[in-house]
Amino acid sequence: MDAPSVEKTPSPPSKDSAITLREIGKRNWRDIVDLTITESQAPLLSSNARSLCESHYSADAWVRGIYADDTPVGFLMMSIAPEVEWYAVWRFMIDQRYQAMGFGRKAIQLAIAYVKDNYPEADMIRAMSAGPEGKKGVSAKDSPYRFYTRLGWKEISEDGEGGEVVLGLDL
């Protein structure tokens, strides 16, 4: 007689987990919407629910869930508009439970590879961030500025919305 089938609970993600960018659809959108950031990071970023809604009305939006093995750990929304040579990280977050595990770095590297592979004419990817000193109501500690600059992004303009700076990564 066969032993009864027991569903295996997946292991929690570790720094060694494989990171993938997955389409968001009817089976996983709730998992992405339920991801959270810290209270001090909240002034920097629209909710994933708002971002998903916005993406449905933006022709240039490209959205993906960030997964560590099979666990949703983050959200990425890019603006991809080759007709005007615009490639930008629009929204990006890693759930507060999974920050500082290297998942963000790996996800951004996958996004860069996606742009390079699918839009070989692209010469730069942009992102906006509070500056190195933060901005009103946001500490430098909570700003993604240092995250991006550690990955080689450079400040290219101070003309971002609400006191943010524009960062660019040459491809």
From TrEMBL:
Domain of life: Eukaryota
SUPFAM superfamilies: Acyl-CoA N-acyltransferases (Nat)
Ranges where the N-acetyltransferase domain occurs: 19-171
Species the sequence originates in: Mortierella polycephala
Molecular function (Gene Ontology), one example: acyltransferase activity, transferring groups other than amino-acyl groups
The protein's name: N-acetyltransferase domain-containing protein
Matching InterPro entries: Acyl_CoA_acyltransferase (IPR016181), GNAT_dom (IPR000182)
